[in-house]
Amino acid sequence: MKISACYTRLLLAWMLCGFAAVLQAAPLARPVPTAPQVSARSYLLQDFDSGKVIAEKNADQPMEPASLTKLMTAYVVFQELKAGRIHLDEEVPISEKAWRTEGSRMFVEVGKRVPVELLIKGMIVQSGNDATVALAEHVAGSEEAFVSLMNQYAHQLGMNQTTFKDASGLPAEGHLTTARDMARLAAAIIREFPDYYRWFAIREMTYNNIRQSNRNTLLFRDPSVDGLKTGHTSTAGYCLVSSARKDGMRLISVVMGSRSEKARADDSQRLLGYGFRFFETRKLYEPGQKISEVRVWKGEKDQLVLTVDAPVWVTIPRGSYGLLDVSMSLSEPLLAPVHKGQALGQLNIRLGDQPVVERPLLAAESVAEGGLWKRLGDGASLWLEGWLGGNDD
């Protein structure tokens, strides 16, 4: 059949228009710029829910934490409160060592008795080294014994590049951590102690007729920021672990070794702003939610639901949610018996050619082995499917 040149041109134009329309309709990922330049010698920006590291620089370089140390002191004290070994209203006698501790102070007085809750606030809001030592002595009998607890908890949390030498963050040889380890600790505090975390948002506190403001100036300039802690010594520089929540997304920022108090706040705000502006976090699956259903052979049931044991969060560039690709890799054939919680495959979530999440797929329930005739029948079906598959060219 002959087709005129005019008709051919019309057909080609129609095809090109259609192709252009498809391209126009396809979602395109929003370009993401590089992270902002900051003065900090080390930093890390991380999503709290997904754990995704959005930006980092020298995040595994050992650094002096200064008063960021008090985050671990708080974590240990919170553990003691949770276990019921100490209580918020019990009074703590102030030792001469606590009273004499140099650096930032709550201005507690030797021989006085101060409630645990007030000392915690003095440690967090006023960064009181005196309050910190008093808490350490109350929990463990001595600061040295308390430091041992700090390092044990650090190990349990996977803070593998962290070693504490004191409870308050005064300079000491070998007293080191990293931005990544500090982010891990901050996330643990937020996750495990939501009732106590609110203390990190307190802007000022008065004790002994002395009013002091929280040194985390982001609390005064950004309503989305609700914690955590500052630190500074002449050798550590200016440090800040901060967290902010906006539009259902929580970010954790760690800056270490900034050049000034203003710079650490500016550095942190630039990083947080970058994360909120160019990224989004979504929850894809809940624990126990049905993700897929698979065939079970030789069992009492033919179908089995696959699930996950923890929420599946993704942090991705804004506007790229529609480009996510979800797939599963399964071990087949699946033969009974199957035990609840048994790993049977893997959930794979990708954005383009980049993996975003890989999570084990688990059996939502147990499936016992079927009776004799069920096993024989399924065995014959498997053999037949295998024979047909083996001869399929």
Structural notes for this entry:
The protein has 393 residues and is of the alpha+beta class. The protein folds into two domains: 238 residues, Beta-lactamase (3-Layer(aba) Sandwich); 93 residues, Peptidoglycan synthesis regulatory factor (PBP3), Domain 2, CATH 2.60.410.10. Helices cover 34% and strands 27% of the residues. The strands form five sheets. Strands 14-16-17-12-11-15 form a six-stranded mixed beta sheet. The longest helix has 21 residues. The two termini are 36 Å apart.
Compact summary:
This protein has 393 residues and is α+β, with helices and mostly antiparallel strands. Helices cover 34% and strands 27% of the residues. The chain has helices at residues 5-25, 69-83, 96-100, 116-124, 129-140, 143-156, 179-192, 194-197, 218-221, 261-278, 372-390, and strands at residues 42-47, 53-57, 91-93, 113-115, 204-207, 210-213, 225-233, 237-246, 249-258, 279-285, 292-297, 303-307, 312-317, 324-330, 334-335, 343-351, 354-363.
